[in-house]
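HUMAN: Can I see a protein plus its fold?

ASSISTANT:
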Amino acid sequence: MSPLAFLGLAAAITLVGSLFLMIGSRKRTPWDSSINAFQKRLDALAPDKDQVIELLDDEPFPGGGRHSAGT
């Protein structure tokens, strides 16, 4: 076996072994973990269930609402 072929074989074995170790040791997360994390953030921002939210004005926008530029 020539020295270059031996070096190439050693490099290939090293790459395959490193890839195997990286894949085997990565953190496993369930497929819905990002959905659960997002839901936890939404729940943290949401008002309490017994909290009553009151509107101060009957008018949703100052000046009577939105109008198009032509009117």
